[in-house]
Amino acid sequence: MIRVLTYCLLLIGFSHNAPAQGKIQVLTKTITREIAWEKDDAIMVQGEKASIEINTWSRQEVKIVMKLISRALDKKVAETELEYQRYILQKNKDGIFIKNYFVLPENTRKMQAILSARFEVWIPVQASLNCTNSYGSVKITNKTGQTSLDTRYTNVALVNVQGTGRFKSYFGDLQGMNVGGEIVLDLDHTKTSFRDVSGAISIVSKLGDIEVEDPGRLLSLDIDASKSDVFLKLGELDQYQFDFAVDLGEIYTPVSSLEGPARNWLYGSTSSPMIKVRTYLGKITLEE
Length: 288
Known about the structure:
Helix content is 3%, strand content 70%. The chain is mainly β. The protein has two domains: 1-124, no CATH class; 144-288, no CATH class.
């Protein structure tokens, strides 16, 4: 186990002409740790006001580089309130637990500094991952196996993520590149974009537009959307069957376009993979 604490102070001016007292003080505490991983260890990452990057590697251990950051105009405020940030990096019977959180002293109602955290985490490629975050960002790269994600006010990027995935988002942008397997998404106020998607994908979305592009590897796609537009670019249409329905919306396809308060569109062979889309107060656009 390796543990390193590093403190660094950066001075960043608001502008070249700003007076000296207007310079913001940035104080960072860096914690580095490596934890041995065993086959059945789940990995749980919990962030708050955090920027989280999760990568995979071939080593049978988890490496964490966590940076706790405090920004304030007054250096003493930055130093004092940096200590309001706490963290947990530990292994127990349930797996490996990685977390940052905030603890305010008694009778302190609000913080004067701006506190945040940055995680860089390397995990075994096949490890089970459960990640939550609020008011930040998450990027997961080159992950297989089981992945669970639950975010609020957070932007999410999934790159080369395969396997079984459960993704939940409340307010944010979610982007996926080369995502596939058995994927379920529960989205609220989240704009979603997938490129090079494959497998069986199920999406429930409210108040968030959806865009999906597929090179012809989908086994099924099921979208249930409310107050959301859906855009699909799926290549050769004859490789799929389509079941589209809108309520108070429109359907646009290369084959036909329908407008009105409620419309349905069916197309393709029943033996082909199903692309099913339902939307209320939105439009469905299909391109080859």
